[in-house]
Amino acid sequence: MTDDVLLRVSGVTVSFGGAPVLADVGLEVPPEGFVGLVGPNGAGKTTLINAISGLVRASAGEVVHDGRDVLPLPSHRRAARGIGRTFQQAQLLDGLTCLDNVLLGGFAWAPWLGWLAPRRRAQVRELAEQALADVGLADLRHHPVADLPFGVRRRVDLARALLMRPRLLLLDEPLSGLSSAERGAMAELLAGLPASGVAVLMVEHDVDWVRRLCARVVVLDYGVKLADGPPSVLDQPAVREAYLGTAQEDQ
Amino acid sequence: MTVRRVSLAAFAAVLLALPFAGSDRWLSIVVLALFAVLGAQALNVMVGLVGQVSIGNAAFLAIGGFTAALLDEQAETGFVLACAGALLAAGVVGAVASIPAFRLRGFYLAVSTIALTYAVLYVAAEVQNHEVGASGFRMPYPELLGVSLDSDVAWYWLLLPLAAIVTLLFHLVTRSSLGRAAQTVRDHEQIAPVFGVSTRWMKTAAFAISSGIIGLEGALMAYYVGTVHVENYTLLIAIEYLAMVVVGGLGSAIGVALGALLITALPFLLDDGLRAIGGTALSARTSDLTLIVTGAVIIGCLLWLPGGLISLPARVGAAIARIGRRGGKPTAEAPADVAVVREPAAVSRPAAAPATVSSAATAGSGGDDPLLQVTGLTVTYPNGVTAVRDVDLRCPKGSATLVVGANGAGKTTLLRALTGTLTSEKIATSAELDRYRGETLLRRSPDELTAAGIALVPERTKVFPGLTAAENLDVVPRRIAAGADRFVTRDDVLELLPRLAAVARTDAALLSGGEKQMLAIGRALLTQPRLLVIDELSLGLAPAIVRDLLEKVATIRGEFGVTVLMVEQAVRAALPVADRVVMLRHGAVVADLAADQWTDASEAALIGGGEVVR
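Above: the input entities. Below: the C-alpha cells describing the complete assembly.
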C-alpha cells in the first residue's frame, strides 16, 4: 500500500473548545503527487495541515505517513520523518541572514553541534546555498531577512522547508499576498517539486493556479469534505456555491 | 571586522597584563567581575538564547554554595569534587525547574523562578540552622594542582580562562545549528517543532546547563568569600544578573561578558569618581549616590541602547553614516527623533527625509475637493533604502483609490506613512480633515490621525486576540466622532456586517480570516473615519468572501460617505469598486489611471514591469 500512497489521512477530527473544526476528514497524497486543499475561510484547511504537522492535536483519526501513523508522534518527530511545511506568514528569525534562516531547515536531519562534524556542516551549508539558489535568492544569501519584502520572505521560508529534505511538503497559501508576477514565479518553483521527489499538499485560494498545479483537489467546507477528485471538481455546483459564491467569475 | 579583532586583542592584552600592572583593588574588582561573567553567560543561555525569563540566579548560586559547603565540610571531598557536585546538584534542580516552563512564558515563568528562589532559600536556611547555626559555613582556602587559592592573583588565573572558555563556547553555540534552533524556540515557539526542534528538550537543556554553571559559580564564590550564609543570597543578586545580560546585549555572549564587567565595575568606578570630585562633603553620601547613578546608567542603556553594549559600534557607525548623508544634502533638516515606530531594535527606524510641506490648497484642479493630498512623499529607512520616492497622491472626497504594485514596491510603507505608524514626510491634507485644516499630517501620532478621521484596516494583526468580537468593537472610544457626515453606530456596523453579530461572543483569535477582516473593518468604521485605508483586503481570503467584502466597501463609500484608499493585489476583483488606480514600482508612481482606463496592457505592465500605456 505504501507504494502508491505517501500520506493517508482518515477520520481526522479536531475540536477547539468543544466546537468541531474538522469532522471525520480523509484524503490521500501519492508519492510525488500534488494535491490541492481548497475551501472558504473557516473551512478548516489550515487546521488540517496543522493536524498533519502536529501543531494541533487531532482527537480522532489516523495520519499515516510513509507507512506509519504519525498522530501519536510529537511534531518534531514528524519533521524528522520527512514532513516539512511552510507558513502563510513566513516566520523567520529577523536577526539573521537568509542563509542562516534556511540553515535551520537542516536541524531536522543534522541537528548536532556543527563544529564537531565539519564535513556534515559543510554539506548542510552547501545544500542550503543550493536551496536558496533554487528559489532565486542566491544573491541575497547574506542579506538580513528583517527588511525583505513579503514575497521574498515567502521564498526564504520555502527554501528552509526544502532544506528539511521532506518527502511531504505542506504549503499554506504559498501564493497569497504575492503579485501576479511573483505568483507565476512561485508556481513554477512549486510545479517542479514532485519531479524532485517531494509530494505536495497545498492550501491555496487562487483557483486558476490550483487547477494548473494540482493533479487532485480536496474541497473542505465547515470542517467537512465536500469533494475530492481531479481539478474539475471545482466546477461542481455545490463547490461553486460554497467556495466561489453563486455568481460565476473566476478571479 | 579587523577593527573588531584589534579591539578584542587589545582587550585580551589588558586582561593578561592586569595582575602585573594593576592595583590590588582593581584586581579584586576584576575577580568579582569574572564571577559575574560566569553567571551572566549562564543566564543569557536561558533568557537571551532560548527566551526563558528567569529571576532564579540567587537560588542556583545558593544551591552551589551550600552543596559545596556540605560536601567539603561533611564529606571532605575536597575542592574539585565539591565544585563538580555543586554543578551537578544545581543542574538537576534546574532541569526539574524547567517543567513549569513547558506551560509558562515571560512574566509568569519569571514569577515561578522567584517562587523557586524562596523555596530553595527556605531549605538552605533549615540546613544552615541544623548544621552550623547562625554564623553560616566557613570554607577553607582551596587547593588546585598544588596551588593554594589564597590570593586574588590565584583566583584571577583560575577564573579568567574559565570565563573566557564559557564565553567562547556560548558564542559558538549561538552561531551553530543548535543556536539557531534555540532562537527559533525563543522567537517562534509554536512553530519550532516543525523544524525538528523539541521545545521541551531545548528548555530543559537550557535550564540544566544554565543552572549548572551558576551552581559552579556559587561553589567557587563560596570558597572565594570564605563563608556560606543564607542571607547572602537575595533576589537583588538575580536582578543584577538580569541587568548585566540586558545591558550587555541579550543573546550575545560577547556583549553579555561586557555587560557583566561594566555592571560589576560601575559602582566602584563611580565611588572613586564621586570621592574625587566631592571631597568630604560628598563622601558620607557616596554609597547612596553610587546606587542612584548606577541605576540611572542602567535605565539609560535600556532606553537608548536597547540592543545592549554589543550594538554600540553598529549604532555609532550608522550615526556617522547618517551625518555623512545629511552633510551631502544642503536642503536637509528634520532629525529622525520621533520614535513612532516601536519595533525591535534590529528593525530599522525610518529616517526623516527632507521635509518641506506643501500647501494643501489645490483648489485649481478641477474643483473636486481633495480629502487627502500627498505631495512628494519620500520615506527612507536608516539603512539607506528608499521605500517610497517622491509620491504624489490625491484622494478626492468620496473617491475610492486603488494602489497596486509588486511586493516591495512600497505600498505598505505608503499606507503606514499616511496612518502615522511611520514617521512620515511631506504629507498635506485638505480642509476636510478639519482638525488639520491646512495643516500637515507630518509627525502626527496614529491616535491623532484616527481622531482626525483616518482609519487603517491593517494587513496583519487585525484583531485583539483574547477579546471577543463584540469587545473588539468596544475598544473604540465613543467620544471620537467629531463632525462626521454620518455617525456610525454599532448597530450600523452589525447591519452592514451581520456575520459579526453571530460571532459577537467568540474570541477574536478563533475567527476565520474573513470574519477577522470584517471585524477590523467594523472597528475602523466605529472610529468615524472620513478616509478608510485598507491594506490587502483580499489577502488569504476565498473569492466569494473577497467579493462580499468588496461589496461592503462599496456600501461604506456610498452610504456612509467614506473616502476609500486600498492597497490590493487582486486588481481585477477590486477594480469595480475603485475609480482610480495608482501603480507603484520601486517606491515611485509609474501610473495613475481612471479605473475604466485599466486594461490588459496595464495588467501586463504590473506583472511584467514594462511601460504603462496611458
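Note for the figure: The mean pLDDT of chain B is 79.
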